[in-house]
Design goal:
10 helices; alpha+beta; 50% helix; 10 strands; 390 residues; 4-stranded mixed beta sheet
Length: 390
């Protein structure tokens, strides 16, 4: 691990420091920076590796089901994502989706649901996915059209989901659909849908800038038992937001991991690249850029671990998590862009570390709430705080 001073910040406990250092040592030995072109196989392999090594137990809650604790430790999740992202974007993705895909089960699942799914997810024996977005309902969840109609002891699902990470390789999907108890966001329910159910198909695989399993899902008369509903009928928006509340801050942590790796690469390049009888690091323009990169990373890290700490204290973090994600993802984009610039032509050669980071960071500014949505969330919270009381 390069600069570990941040591990001594008061937001973290000794167990967090031990976790980060142990994972960094493990990842250095077991996680390859490059993966073969079969991304599905690579992801399956990473989930299995992470499960067998015990890291996925931090992605689920409940010691009875193999979790590291009764509740998910947000700071641990953040440290794991930051560390993995520094080593491999795909490894970070594999860990994050196990948590996001099963988070609703941890929070709202019945004992039977938890026993059936969480144990396998935590061991890496089952791959999880979170299916919220639709072609016309991304950030605007209230526009959801996928329908769930109650029919006896089953719900019948009809509609589509898209941009679903792990789509095509997941064993189970937490799917959100309009069940009609009320208009807008109040009439949505959440369900566990097993891969292979009749009426459920992978309609399309989607290729993106940083390859990972992604798909459009289609439901046509897909019957899901009422026992697979998470929370009460019409509680789906609450289920989704509670799940995202845990993992949104960890998106900021992943961005930090990418940014720290980019800074390390930039420092190595700047101190070794010869130019006009000097090294690149001898030029004041380079020094100013490195200072800006490092300062931005520390500022983003402070916001990230503040939000994670607050959530672990049981406090509401809607504004703080939005600030962390906004700042960390935008800062990481700037840091990585600066690193690519320092590498010159080599920075845009396929599979060079900074080129790979350039592709990997871009989606983080969009998923789990785009930058613009985070700005709206922060402003809404500020205005609510400023409103007259009484």
């Amino acid at each position: 691990m390069a600069d570990t001073d941040y591990l001594d910040w008061p937001f973290l406990d000794s167990r967090h420091r031990e976790l980060a250092r142990a994972l960094d040592a493990w990842a250095a030995q077991h996680i390859a920076q490059k993966h073969d072109h079969d991304v599905d196989a690579a992801c399956r392999g990473l989930v299995k590796q992470l499960g067998e090594a015990g890291w996925l137990k931090h992605a689920i809650g409940g010691t009875a089901y193999g979790g590291a604790g009764e509740a998910i430790d947000t700071r641990a999740v953040c440290l794991i994502r930051e560390t993995l992202a520094r080593h491999s974007g795909l490894a970070d993705f594999a860990f994050a989706m196990q948590g996001l895909g099963s988070g609703a089960i941890t929070l709202f699942g019945s004992e039977e649901n938890k026993r059936d799914y969480l144990t396998r997810v935590g061991r890496g024996d089952a791959i999880a996915a979170f299916a919220l977005s639709e072609p016309d309902a991304g950030s605007d969840v209230a526009a959801m059209a996928c329908a769930a109609t109650l029919d006896g002891d089953d719900y019948v699902l009809d509609g589509e989901k898209t941009w679903i990470s792990n789509g095509g390789i997941a064993d189970m999907y937490v799917v959100f659909a309009r069940s009609g108890e009320a208009p807008g966001a109040r009439g949505i329910s959440a369900f566990i849908v097993d891969a292979g159910l009749p009426g459920f198909e992978i309609a399309e695989r989607i290729d993106v800038i940083a390859p990972h399993p992604l798909a459009r899902l289609r439901f046509s008369g897909c019957r899901v038992p009422v026992s697979k509903r998470l929370g009460a009928a019409g509680q789906g928006f609450k289920v989704a937001m509670a799940t995202l509340d845990i993992f949104r801050t960890s998106v900021a942590a992943a961005a930090l991991g990418f940014a720290r790796r980019a800074l390390d690469e930039a420092l190595a390049r700047a101190t070794s690249r010869k130019m006009f009888g000097k090294t690149l690091a001898d030029f004041q323009l380079t020094q100013a850029k490195l200072a800006q990169m490092a300062t931005g990373i520390d500022a983003a890290a402070l916001l990230t671990y503040r939000a994670a700490w607050q959530r672990d204290q049981g406090r509401r973090v809607t504004k703080e998590a939005a600030m962390a994600k906004l700042t960390a993802t935008e800062t990481a984009q700037q840091v990585i862009d600066a690193a690519v610039q320092m590498f010159g032509g080599l920075g845009v050669v396929s599979e060079q570390p900074v080129e790979r980071l350039y592709r990997e960071i871009r989606s983080l500014r969009i998923y789990e709430g785009a930058t613009e949505v985070q700005q709206l969330i922060i402003a809404r919270e500020l205005l609510a705080e400023a409103a007259p009381r009484g």
